[in-house]
UniProtKB/TrEMBL annotation:
Annotated positions for site Could be important to modulate the pK values of the two catalytic cysteine residues: H140, E190
HAMAP family: DAP_epimerase (MF_00197)
Residues the entry annotates as binding substrate: N13, N67, G77, N78, N172, E190, R191, G201, T202
Reactions this protein catalyses: (2S,6S)-2,6-diaminopimelate = meso-2,6-diaminopimelate
Lineage of the species this protein comes from: Bacteria, Pseudomonadati, Bacteroidota, Flavobacteriia, Flavobacteriales
Sequence similarity: Belongs to the diaminopimelate epimerase family.
Database matches in InterPro entries: DAP_epimerase_AS, DAP_epimerase_DapF
Catalytic residue positions: C76 (proton donor), C76, C200 (proton acceptor)
The protein's name in its UniProt record: Diaminopimelate epimerase
Protein backbone atom coordinates (compact mmCIF):
# COMPACT_ATOMS: atom_id res chain seq x y z
CA UNK A 1 0.00 0.00 0.00
CA UNK A 2 1.01 3.65 -0.46
CA UNK A 3 0.93 5.63 2.79
CA UNK A 4 0.45 9.41 2.66
CA UNK A 5 2.58 11.25 5.20
CA UNK A 6 3.58 14.80 6.09
CA UNK A 7 6.97 15.97 7.30
CA UNK A 8 7.11 18.79 9.90
CA UNK A 9 9.90 20.41 11.86
CA UNK A 10 9.93 22.58 14.97
CA UNK A 11 13.31 24.25 15.53
CA UNK A 12 14.93 21.37 13.68
CA UNK A 13 13.26 18.59 15.72
CA UNK A 14 11.69 16.74 12.79
CA UNK A 15 8.67 14.48 12.58
CA UNK A 16 6.71 12.27 10.22
CA UNK A 17 3.00 12.92 10.75
CA UNK A 18 0.16 10.65 9.65
CA UNK A 19 -3.48 11.71 9.59
CA UNK A 20 -4.85 8.59 11.29
CA UNK A 21 -8.44 9.71 11.78
CA UNK A 22 -9.50 6.82 9.53
CA UNK A 23 -7.21 4.32 11.39
CA UNK A 24 -5.01 3.68 8.33
CA UNK A 25 -2.15 2.44 10.54
CA UNK A 26 -2.18 0.43 13.76
CA UNK A 27 -0.47 1.87 16.83
CA UNK A 28 1.67 -1.20 17.54
CA UNK A 29 3.49 -1.20 14.17
CA UNK A 30 6.91 -0.49 15.72
CA UNK A 31 8.73 -1.90 12.68
CA UNK A 32 6.91 0.41 10.25
CA UNK A 33 7.38 3.54 12.41
CA UNK A 34 11.09 2.76 12.90
CA UNK A 35 11.53 2.37 9.13
CA UNK A 36 9.64 5.58 8.34
CA UNK A 37 11.92 7.48 10.76
CA UNK A 38 15.10 5.90 9.37
CA UNK A 39 17.15 8.54 7.51
CA UNK A 40 18.56 5.99 5.04
CA UNK A 41 15.83 3.35 4.59
CA UNK A 42 12.80 5.59 5.13
CA UNK A 43 11.75 9.24 5.26
CA UNK A 44 13.92 10.28 8.18
CA UNK A 45 12.77 11.92 11.42
CA UNK A 46 13.41 12.18 15.17
CA UNK A 47 9.89 10.89 15.79
CA UNK A 48 6.52 10.04 14.31
CA UNK A 49 3.06 11.22 15.29
CA UNK A 50 -0.45 10.08 14.60
CA UNK A 51 -3.25 12.64 14.61
CA UNK A 52 -6.27 10.67 15.74
CA UNK A 53 -9.94 11.40 16.43
CA UNK A 54 -10.69 12.98 19.83
CA UNK A 55 -11.73 10.62 22.61
CA UNK A 56 -14.05 13.12 24.27
CA UNK A 57 -16.24 16.12 23.42
CA UNK A 58 -13.77 18.75 24.70
CA UNK A 59 -10.85 17.73 22.48
CA UNK A 60 -10.16 18.56 18.85
CA UNK A 61 -7.88 15.54 18.32
CA UNK A 62 -5.66 12.98 20.05
CA UNK A 63 -1.84 12.98 19.79
CA UNK A 64 0.08 9.69 19.71
CA UNK A 65 3.88 10.01 19.69
CA UNK A 66 6.61 7.50 18.77
CA UNK A 67 10.36 7.98 19.03
CA UNK A 68 12.59 7.26 16.02
CA UNK A 69 13.12 3.75 17.42
CA UNK A 70 9.45 3.04 16.66
CA UNK A 71 8.32 2.82 20.28
CA UNK A 72 5.50 4.89 21.70
CA UNK A 73 6.98 7.32 24.20
CA UNK A 74 6.15 10.08 26.63
CA UNK A 75 5.28 13.67 25.65
CA UNK A 76 7.06 15.48 22.86
CA UNK A 77 6.82 19.28 23.15
CA UNK A 78 8.06 20.17 19.68
CA UNK A 79 5.96 17.33 18.30
CA UNK A 80 2.88 18.71 20.04
CA UNK A 81 3.53 22.13 18.50
CA UNK A 82 3.93 20.56 15.04
CA UNK A 83 0.74 18.53 15.47
CA UNK A 84 -1.20 21.69 16.32
CA UNK A 85 0.14 23.31 13.11
CA UNK A 86 -0.88 20.14 11.20
CA UNK A 87 -4.39 20.19 12.73
CA UNK A 88 -4.72 23.80 11.57
CA UNK A 89 -3.48 22.83 8.07
CA UNK A 90 -6.13 20.05 7.93
CA UNK A 91 -8.87 22.44 9.10
CA UNK A 92 -9.46 20.39 12.27
CA UNK A 93 -8.83 23.59 14.27
CA UNK A 94 -8.50 27.26 13.41
CA UNK A 95 -6.00 28.90 15.76
CA UNK A 96 -6.83 27.28 19.10
CA UNK A 97 -6.61 23.63 20.08
CA UNK A 98 -7.44 21.34 22.97
CA UNK A 99 -6.05 17.83 22.67
CA UNK A 100 -5.03 14.85 24.75
CA UNK A 101 -1.56 13.30 24.63
CA UNK A 102 -0.03 10.54 26.75
CA UNK A 103 0.62 12.97 29.65
CA UNK A 104 -2.88 14.44 29.65
CA UNK A 105 -4.73 17.41 28.23
CA UNK A 106 -2.99 20.26 26.38
CA UNK A 107 -4.21 23.64 25.24
CA UNK A 108 -2.52 25.51 22.37
CA UNK A 109 -2.87 28.68 20.39
CA UNK A 110 -1.28 29.77 17.10
CA UNK A 111 -0.32 33.45 17.31
CA UNK A 112 1.98 35.60 15.18
CA UNK A 113 3.06 32.48 13.27
CA UNK A 114 4.24 30.69 16.43
CA UNK A 115 2.62 27.77 18.24
CA UNK A 116 2.18 28.31 21.99
CA UNK A 117 1.69 24.95 23.69
CA UNK A 118 0.66 24.62 27.32
CA UNK A 119 2.66 21.96 29.11
CA UNK A 120 1.69 19.97 32.23
CA UNK A 121 2.21 21.62 35.63
CA UNK A 122 5.44 20.61 37.37
CA UNK A 123 5.44 20.25 41.16
CA UNK A 124 8.64 18.26 41.76
CA UNK A 125 12.18 19.17 40.75
CA UNK A 126 14.99 17.06 42.18
CA UNK A 127 18.16 19.07 42.86
CA UNK A 128 21.54 17.32 43.06
CA UNK A 129 25.12 18.68 43.24
CA UNK A 130 25.81 18.01 39.57
CA UNK A 131 22.36 18.28 37.96
CA UNK A 132 18.60 18.59 38.31
CA UNK A 133 15.97 16.04 37.32
CA UNK A 134 12.33 16.65 36.47
CA UNK A 135 9.47 15.42 34.34
CA UNK A 136 7.88 17.89 31.94
CA UNK A 137 5.85 15.19 30.19
CA UNK A 138 9.13 13.38 29.48
CA UNK A 139 12.00 12.78 31.93
CA UNK A 140 14.89 15.27 31.79
CA UNK A 141 18.33 15.41 33.38
CA UNK A 142 19.62 19.01 33.30
CA UNK A 143 23.31 19.99 33.68
CA UNK A 144 24.97 23.39 33.50
CA UNK A 145 28.25 23.23 31.55
CA UNK A 146 30.95 25.54 30.16
CA UNK A 147 31.87 25.88 26.49
CA UNK A 148 28.66 24.23 25.24
CA UNK A 149 29.70 24.61 21.57
CA UNK A 150 32.58 22.20 22.09
CA UNK A 151 30.88 19.93 24.64
CA UNK A 152 30.69 16.22 23.82
CA UNK A 153 26.89 16.03 24.12
CA UNK A 154 26.62 12.62 22.44
CA UNK A 155 29.18 10.71 24.54
CA UNK A 156 28.35 12.32 27.89
CA UNK A 157 24.60 12.31 27.16
CA UNK A 158 24.64 8.66 26.17
CA UNK A 159 26.53 7.55 29.28
CA UNK A 160 24.18 9.50 31.59
CA UNK A 161 21.08 8.21 29.71
CA UNK A 162 22.20 4.60 30.13
CA UNK A 163 23.74 4.88 33.60
CA UNK A 164 22.42 5.02 37.18
CA UNK A 165 19.68 5.75 38.14
CA UNK A 166 18.04 5.69 34.69
CA UNK A 167 19.38 2.52 33.02
CA UNK A 168 17.11 1.00 30.36
CA UNK A 169 14.12 3.29 30.87
CA UNK A 170 16.51 6.17 30.32
CA UNK A 171 16.26 9.93 30.52
CA UNK A 172 16.78 12.74 28.07
CA UNK A 173 19.89 14.74 28.95
CA UNK A 174 20.14 18.52 28.54
CA UNK A 175 23.28 20.65 28.69
CA UNK A 176 22.89 24.38 29.25
CA UNK A 177 25.07 27.49 29.48
CA UNK A 178 24.09 31.10 30.01
CA UNK A 179 24.28 33.30 26.89
CA UNK A 180 23.09 36.62 28.35
CA UNK A 181 20.39 37.85 30.79
CA UNK A 182 17.30 35.65 30.33
CA UNK A 183 18.86 33.85 27.34
CA UNK A 184 20.41 30.37 27.50
CA UNK A 185 22.03 27.99 25.02
CA UNK A 186 20.78 24.39 25.22
CA UNK A 187 21.79 21.10 23.59
CA UNK A 188 19.91 17.84 24.21
CA UNK A 189 20.66 14.12 23.95
CA UNK A 190 17.32 12.39 23.34
CA UNK A 191 16.48 8.89 24.44
CA UNK A 192 14.64 6.92 21.76
CA UNK A 193 16.59 8.79 19.10
CA UNK A 194 19.81 7.87 20.94
CA UNK A 195 21.56 10.92 19.59
CA UNK A 196 21.66 14.68 19.92
CA UNK A 197 18.66 16.35 18.27
CA UNK A 198 18.62 19.96 17.06
CA UNK A 199 16.07 20.88 19.73
CA UNK A 200 13.81 19.28 22.35
CA UNK A 201 10.64 21.01 23.57
CA UNK A 202 10.08 19.17 26.84
CA UNK A 203 13.87 19.54 27.27
CA UNK A 204 14.01 23.35 27.04
CA UNK A 205 10.93 23.49 29.27
CA UNK A 206 12.79 21.39 31.86
CA UNK A 207 15.85 23.61 31.50
CA UNK A 208 13.86 26.83 32.00
CA UNK A 209 12.23 25.53 35.21
CA UNK A 210 15.57 24.15 36.47
CA UNK A 211 17.29 27.50 35.92
CA UNK A 212 14.53 29.25 37.83
CA UNK A 213 14.62 26.71 40.67
CA UNK A 214 18.41 26.94 40.97
CA UNK A 215 18.18 30.76 40.84
CA UNK A 216 20.23 31.07 37.67
CA UNK A 217 17.42 33.29 36.42
CA UNK A 218 14.63 35.15 38.18
CA UNK A 219 12.74 35.65 34.92
CA UNK A 220 9.51 33.78 34.17
CA UNK A 221 10.05 34.17 30.44
CA UNK A 222 13.22 32.47 29.28
CA UNK A 223 14.66 32.43 25.76
CA UNK A 224 16.32 29.19 24.76
CA UNK A 225 18.75 29.02 21.88
CA UNK A 226 19.04 25.50 20.51
CA UNK A 227 21.12 24.37 17.51
CA UNK A 228 17.83 24.34 15.53
CA UNK A 229 16.56 27.79 16.51
CA UNK A 230 14.98 29.75 19.31
CA UNK A 231 12.19 28.67 21.66
CA UNK A 232 10.63 30.62 24.49
CA UNK A 233 9.32 29.17 27.76
CA UNK A 234 6.98 31.19 29.98
CA UNK A 235 5.55 30.07 33.31
CA UNK A 236 4.09 31.05 36.66
CA UNK A 237 4.95 29.73 40.10
CA UNK A 238 2.99 29.29 43.32
CA UNK A 239 3.27 27.15 46.48
CA UNK A 240 2.30 24.04 44.48
CA UNK A 241 5.02 24.52 41.89
CA UNK A 242 5.16 25.67 38.28
CA UNK A 243 1.95 26.15 36.30
CA UNK A 244 0.71 27.93 33.18
CA UNK A 245 3.85 26.69 31.45
CA UNK A 246 3.97 27.55 27.74
CA UNK A 247 6.45 26.36 25.11
CA UNK A 248 6.49 28.84 22.24
CA UNK A 249 8.12 28.58 18.84
CA UNK A 250 7.80 27.91 15.12
CA UNK A 251 6.39 24.71 13.59
CA UNK A 252 6.55 24.24 9.83
CA UNK A 253 5.37 21.80 7.21
CA UNK A 254 8.38 20.71 5.16
CA UNK A 255 6.77 18.39 2.61
CA UNK A 256 4.03 15.86 1.90
CA UNK A 257 4.69 12.50 0.31
CA UNK A 258 3.72 8.91 -0.24
CA UNK A 259 5.79 5.93 0.83
CA UNK A 260 5.38 2.31 -0.18
CA UNK A 261 4.69 0.09 2.84
N1 LIG B 1 11.72 15.82 21.14
C1 LIG B 1 10.76 15.77 22.16
C2 LIG B 1 10.91 14.74 23.23
C3 LIG B 1 10.49 13.39 22.70
C4 LIG B 1 10.42 12.31 23.73
C5 LIG B 1 11.76 11.85 24.19
N2 LIG B 1 12.64 11.43 23.16
C6 LIG B 1 11.55 10.74 25.22
O1 LIG B 1 11.39 9.57 24.84
O2 LIG B 1 11.52 11.05 26.41
C7 LIG B 1 10.34 17.13 22.64
O3 LIG B 1 10.35 18.07 21.83
O4 LIG B 1 9.88 17.25 23.77
Amino acid sequence: MNLTFYKYQGTGNDFVIIDNRQSIVTKNDTKLFKRLCDRKFGIGADGLMLLELPENDEDDFTMVYFNADGNESSMCGNGGRCLVAFASFLGVIKDKATFTAIDGKHYAVIKDGLVQLQMQDVSTIEEYDSHLFLDTGSPHHVMVVDDLDNYDVVSVGRSIRNGAPYYEAGSNVNFVEKATVGVFNVRTYERGVEDETLSCGTGVTAVALSLHTSKMTDKKEVRMQTPGGELKVTFQKNELGYHHIFLIGPAEQVFKGEIVC
